[in-house]
Amino acid sequence: MLKTNINRLRVLGFLEGISYLLLLGICMPLKYMMDIPEPTSYVGMAHGVLFIAYCLWVVIVAAELKWGFSKIFWALVASLLPFGTFVADARLFKPEEVKR
């Protein structure tokens, strides 16, 4: 599964998307509604590391597969939106895997 860079990007996207949803859907309500800030720091740190890794890996894969500006732009925008990396996986990354 993790033998190609595009598959590594897909896994990073999945993990980054899950961490973002955990941060927004669970940790932030715990912090602001129930005054329990501890989970936010741990999940926030994990999400930050995964976010940076995802962005760097998009650039690596883009250089390797010679993506155009539009595809790179949408892959990076996907990391900013909830559920964005899942959509990017289905629309941007999975078709690349089939071509190889």
From TrEMBL:
<keyword id="KW-0812">Transmembrane</keyword>
<keyword id="KW-1133">Transmembrane helix</keyword>
<feature type="transmembrane region" description="Helical">
    <location>
        <begin position="72"/>
        <end position="93"/>
    </location>
</feature>
<protein>
    <submittedName>
        <fullName>DUF3817 domain-containing protein</fullName>
    </submittedName>
</protein>
<keyword id="KW-1003">Cell membrane</keyword>
<feature type="transmembrane region" description="Helical">
    <location>
        <begin position="12"/>
        <end position="30"/>
    </location>
</feature>
<dbReference type="InterPro" id="IPR023845">
    <property type="entry name" value="DUF3817_TM"/>
</dbReference>
<feature type="domain" description="DUF3817">
    <location>
        <begin position="7"/>
        <end position="92"/>
    </location>
</feature>
<dbReference type="Pfam" id="PF12823">
    <property type="entry name" value="DUF3817"/>
</dbReference>
<keyword id="KW-0472">Membrane</keyword>
<feature type="transmembrane region" description="Helical">
    <location>
        <begin position="42"/>
        <end position="60"/>
    </location>
</feature>
